[in-house]
Each structure stands twice: as structure tokens, then as C-alpha cells.
From TrEMBL, chain A:
Keywords: Ubl conjugation pathway. This is Skp1-related protein. PANTHER family: SKP1. SMART domains: Skp1. InterPro entries: SKP1, SKP1-like, SKP1-like_dim_sf, SKP1/BTB/POZ_sf, Skp1_comp_dimer, Skp1_comp_POZ.
TrEMBL record, chain B:
It comes from Caenorhabditis brenneri. InterPro entries: F-box_dom (IPR001810), F-box_Sdz-33 (IPR012885), Zygotic_Embryogenesis-Asso (IPR053222). Transmembrane segments: none annotated. It comes from the Eukaryota. Pfam families: F-box, FBA_2. This is F-box domain-containing protein. Residues 4-52 form the F-box domain.
Amino acid sequence: MSVENAPVVDVDEAAIPVEKKMYYRFESNDKKEFRVSELAIQQSETLNRLVEAMGYTSEDVENKPAIAIENIDGKTLKLVFQWCEHHKGEAIPVDDGSVPKIVEIPEFDAKLMDIDNGLLFKLIWAADYLNIVQLLNVSCKKVANMAQGKTPAQLRRVYLLPSDEEDEAAKRAAQEAQDPRAREVEEEFEERKRQGGNSFF
Amino acid sequence: MTSTFPLLQLPDRAIKTVFKQYGVTDLILFSTISNRAKCLVKSDKRNAYHIEFYIDRGCIVYLNCGTIIFFGESQQRESDIESLTPCAVRVEEQRPPSKISFTLPGYSVRDWLLHFMCVFNHPKINLSFAIRDEWMYSLESVRKIVEGISIKKLSVFENACEIMNYFPIMNSLEVKRFTLEQQLPEEDLNVIRKVLIGNIACLVIYRSIPIDLNMLLLMNCPDIDLCQSSITDKQLNKFIKLWLTGACPNLQDLDLDIVEQYINGFRLDHCVVMKGIKYEEFRDCGLTGCKYTIRKPDGTRALLSISDMTFSFKILDHDNTIS
């Protein structure tokens, strides 16, 4: 098991004499461990509720196993926690329903997301799963920016969008794979219709 | 670094978040990629509140977010609108402010009209005919463009009769008039009289149309706005009494003015209009004249507002708001 013992963002403990900060330990699906501050965790609604429900004390955090996050790998989780640590204490944005949603990507976030599209894809999935609203906003903004100045043909290529024919073929294939009996019934029905029969049953 | 991104494999909420951050131009271009892309844009609910076809300007789509889309603009008089294919689209956004124009091969004015009605969730268009001298498209080409499309409001200045022959079905009809424009020919007046007793949901007539009591009682539109009518206060009194006994059951909102008679010194006398009618005074009698509420035996209440040259009748809800 590879363990990342240091916090995601280095903290000078001596500089905080009054109140000892609480750190939680999380483990990715590839067994990488992270220590994340309580304040940073508040950016994630999912994790915040989880740690609240667990009611861990400082001793529990050290003595009990790290909280496993089964469906996110270490590389992605590192980005997520780096983002949470940097934005800890910030207010969580509330969707006011306005469109287009105006989102600015701060410099730190832009650098953090200067990554391969494959990793960006995983980061968005993680932000959605962990319910980190602002991380979801900025990462989706980066995806939205990919459309700027593109023609429909270029958009199709960038976003890997299937054509109508490809969608139809995929739908047919999915139907056939899912319920072969339903297809037989449909074919039988079509055959009877061709023969001019009024009743099917 | 890979240059592609599998957008549709993102979770639903993330796809919606991406769409919410698109500008309208990106959204429009995206929606032309495939039917699925079109449905996704439609589900973003960047809805239109008006889609207008102005015969003197072209088509304009007004979105709730403040963005305005122009297309089908022509510089040539009485042109065939389909000759504008591929049709240029101009998008003026408010947040952030920008103006972008583009064309797509094969997209005609009708194609864009149907496309915008679909993706911006607005099933009906308003059709507005300016005075004949300003028409940029022929009537026949407009008919081809809007064939099969539901008309919400039809606005006409002149040639009302000719235009309504082309577009006989609409929710709302507005017959406008410029101050110095001549009165409608008798033929057009007859058409409008027929319309008044038809089933159009809303009617606004800025024309001097002889309306007598019989005409008023025959009207079947729920919402009528008649300017420059020639009705008298005695006729209005009779009308109210008949409404109280069950006449005009569909009427919700009637606004009349007698501007032309007012210029000749005639005034609506609210004492004559309300003579013999049981009423309650409604709040204060302000600058807009006197207000009264009347009640039918079945409990339906109406608010009457009477000034020297205007008469208004509105059905009231239980909480005293206008239906």
C-alpha cells in the first residue's frame, strides 16, 4: 500500500497555536492515502456529510482505517483535495438559475486543470460524485470553452458526438442486446400487420 | 494531450453544467450536430418568450436570458425569402455582451425558424405585417415560410382582409393603424366584424369600427381591445345589464375607447353607464376614472373602470385580482 502521509497542502502546525486542526484520512481506489483538513472537506457535500455521520474524534482519525473512496483513483483524488485545500473556507455557490452561468476560472484552478482531457474527465466525475459545486463549475467551464469558435463539424470531432445514424444503430443494438423476446414479439406483430390481421392476441 | 473530450459520457448534472455555460451561439451550433444534440440543447431550457416574423425586418427570436437572434434579414424589397439560403444568423448576447454572425450550408429561413422553435421551446410565432411600402418579402413567400406553423399573434396595418385570407387561424389578432392612415374599406371592416364574433382568444383593433350594442353582444372573443369605437354610454349601460343576466359568458377583458367622439366633445357619463345597476365602488376613484365592481347571480364578479373616453370591463378572481 502506498501512503501519502503528508497533507495535500503543507501546513505549518506551529503557526496555529490556538486550535489544533483536525485532518481526515481518505484512501483512493488504488490505495493512495490523503490527509485533508476539516475545513477543506466542507467544500464537498458528500464527504462533509460522511464525516459528520461518522462522528470521528482526532483519535479515531489516527486509529481507525482511512475512509475509502472506492471509485476515484489517487491521481484524480489528489487534484480534488488540492482544489479543496486551496478553496477551503470559501462560500459554496448557490445556483440562481441564471443562464448563461458566468464562471471565471481562477489562476490556481487553471493551473490545476492544465491536464490531459482524460484526467479532466475523471476530475469532473469526481467533482460530481463528491458534490463539489464550484469544482464542477470550473471544470465544466473548461469543457464549455472547448466549443468556442468551432463549427458543428469541429464540435462533433472534439466532443466525440455520434451522428443520427450512429445513434440509431447504437439504439437498435442496445434494444437487441437487452430484450431479444421483445424484438421477436415486435417482428411477429409486424408480420401480422402485413398479413392484414386485426387482432394480435 | 488528447484533443477530444467524450462530453456525452459525463454524468447528467455535469452535461447540464457545461450547457449552462455555453453562449447562445455555441448552443445553436451544437444543436445542429444531430437530433440528440438538438434534444440536449432543448433540455437546457434557454427558452424564447417571443419568436417574431416581421415582414419589414425578418425574424427575431427573443430569449428569456436577454439574448436576441436575428435571421432572414433582407435588403431587397418584396424578395423571395427562400432566396436567402443559406440564411445568415446574427446573435446578440447580453451576458457577456457580444455580436456574432454565422451561416450554415443548406439552412434556409424556414429551417432556422423550425429549429429555433424546437430548441428554444416556443411552439408558436408572431407574424407582423407592416405597412405595404415597407414589406421586404412577398406575401406568398411568407406563406411558404410559415406553412404549418401555429400563429400566436397576427398584427396587420392595412390589407387586413387579404392577409387574413392567407393566415386565417391565430390566437390573437391586432389590427393597427397609423394616425394619418385612411379608414379600412368596407370589405375589411366586414372581415373584422366576422372576426369579432369568432373564437379568437385575443383581439386588439386600433381602427374605428362601428360597434353597436348588438355587435357587442355577439362578440365571442374573451379578450377584446377596441380603440376608437363609437359606442354610447346608454348602450354600455344596456350591455352591463344584459351581461348581468347571462349575455357574453366568455368575455374576460374588454377595453374600449371613444377617442374620435371625445375629440368631437362627447364624454362617457359614468352615471348614465351605471344607471339602475347594483354596484360597489372599487377602492378609490383616481385619475383613471371611477371603478365599480358588479356581481352576477352566479357569483361572477367584474371590475368596471369608466373615464371620459374609456370603458374597461375585467372579470375578477376571488381575491380581487384580474383573471
